[in-house]
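User: Structure please.
Assistant: Input sequence and predicted structure:
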Amino acid sequence: MPRHRDLAPVGADYATTGPNHNSLHRSIPASRDELFSCLEDGQATKEWQGVDVEWTSRPPRGIGSTRTLKGLGQTVKQSVLAWEPGKRMCFRNDRTTLPLAAFAEDYIITPTSDSACELRWHYAFEWGGRAKPVLGRLFGLAFAVGGRRDLNKLASRLESTAESD
C-alpha cells in the first residue's frame, strides 16, 4: 500500500503562483449553477474525471470542508480553501500517496450566457519525490493532458444532460 505524506499547507493563491502552475479552460454548455453543482457532486466527478469523491465533512460545504479522492491507485485528502457557489471552488491537497510537496487547484466559473459559461481550472504543484526536475515535468505534462480530456468529458456530460431535459 502506498505511503501517505503530508503536503505543505498552501493558500488559494498557490494554484496560480506555485512553481509548476498551469491553467486549462473550456467553454461549458451549462449555467454556472449547473456547472458548480456538477463539480460538487461526487458521482458526477467520477463520470467525468474517473475518481471516487467522498465528502468527509458534513454539509453545508464551504471553506474548511474536506473530501477524499481515490483513483488510479492513489488517494488524496483535500481541504476547501475557497467556496463561492456558482462562481468558484478551490482545494488544497493535505495528504496524498503521490510524491508531491504541495498542490492546489482552483475552479473559476464565468458565465458567458444564461446557458453557458467558461471554466478556468488553475492548478500548481511542487514535486516532492526522487528525480524532482524530470518526474515533476512528466507529472505536469500528464496532468495537463488528462485535465484537457477531463474538461472535454465534463462539457459532453453537461451537454447531454441539457439535451435530455
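Residues 5-164 form a domain with the Alpha-D-Glucose-1,6-Bisphosphate; Chain A, domain 4 fold (CATH 3.30.530.20).
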